[in-house]
Design brief:
Layout (H helix, E strand, L loop, with lengths): L3 E10 L3 E11 L4 E5 L6 H8 L11 E4 L2 E5 L2 E2 L3 H5 L2 E4 L11 H6 L8 H5 L5 H13 L15 H15 L3 E5 L7 H18 L2 E6 L2 H7 L2 E6 L2 E7 L5 H8 L3 H5 L23 H6 L2
Parallel strand pairs: 3-9, 3-10, 7-8, 8-9
Antiparallel strand pairs: 1-2, 1-4, 4-5, 5-6, 10-11
Helix pairs in contact: 5-6, 6-7
Length: 287
């Protein structure tokens, strides 16, 4: 049984903008896989298809998660709401509700499993609250549980989003550029937490990254995309500057900064502007 199976997936926006072109790959349970590529390569579009947030062209493509259909031939599969309880999505812009407490945001991870009326009214059981506090402790921000989400730094908000997937009980985490807006120290903490959930809980992780160094250091396997197609799928340690130059030409400098290096863990974490919004993650979790 594959954790993720994508077969012949294509997506065209409008009449000519081909975002995905006959994409096929699979990910085994327990893998941590990086998805890399320059802006516009199709990474985010692919992740949204796996999550069942958008549909593909009606050309025979399919997406399955743990052998259950997410979509087929451009149509979302029946019963996808149940599948979504197994899929945690970590978005680039955090997608926390800024005015709510960090604890409440993390508790929304139970939306797919608890009765809707209870979560709508903000009624959570003692066990659910304990699970949320445990998850916040695991990602290192339990002391911030009572704060408004908007008052956290960008890195702390992203760790709260990871805690939400832990409470959700996700078997698959799809992380879409989770460190794109963060400084190096915050990026390391977020990637450390994703790696820990992968190793300790056996959760399958597919993480979209713009920085190759993090792919090399955290993910044994990397899938590289260019112009909507997979151009490399193999061990991350094969992503040498020479190979990246061959795959991406001058655009490889955007992925490497000129080299493939170990990311630093010494820079101090900085706050970045909050992105307040009614969270798409809540709508996703609710099905």
């Amino acid at each position: 049984m594959s954790a993720v199976s994508v077969e012949h997936l294509s997506k065209t926006f409008g009449k000519t903008n081909r975002a995905l072109s006959d994409v096929t790959f699979s990910i085994e349970p327990g893998e941590m896989v990086a998805l890399i590529g320059a802006s516009g390569s199709g990474k985010s579009t692919l992740i949204r298809h796996i999550a069942g947030l958008v549909t593909s062209d009606r050309s025979g493509g399919s997406v399955k998660v743990f052998d259950a259909a997410i979509q087929q031939d451009g149509k979302i599969a029946d019963g996808v709401r149940q599948r979504r309880t197994e899929i945690g999505v970590v978005f680039q812009q955090f997608n926390l509700v800024g005015r709510l407490s960090v604890l409440t945001n993390v508790l929304t991870g139970v939306l797919g499993r608890a009765p809707f009326w209870r979560t709508w009214l903000g009624i959570f059981t003692r066990d659910e609250k304990q699970r949320a506090m445990t998850a916040l402790a695991r990602v290192g921000i339990a002391s911030h549980a009572g704060k408004r989400a908007a008052d956290l730094s960008g890195g702390q908000q992203q760790r709260a989003a990871i805690a939400r997937t832990i409470v959700q009980g996700a078997k698959l985490i799809l992380a879409d550029e989770p460190i794109a807006s963060l400084d190096p120290a915050s990026s390391v903490k977020v990637m450390d937490n994703l790696k820990r959930v992968n190793e300790d809980d056996g959760v399958t992780v597919l993480v979209s990254l713009h920085q190759v160094d993090y792919a090399v250091n955290y993910c044994p396997r990397t899938i590289a995309m260019r112009a909507g197609e997979i151009v490399f799928d193999g061990p991350s340690d094969q992503l040498t500057p020479a190979l990246l130059q061959e795959l991406y030409g001058s655009a490889s400098l955007d992925l490497t900064g000129g080299s493939v290096e170990q990311p630093t863990k010494k820079a101090s974490e900085k706050a970045i502007p909050n992105h307040p919004a009614a969270s798409p993650a809540l709508a996703y979790a609710a099905g």
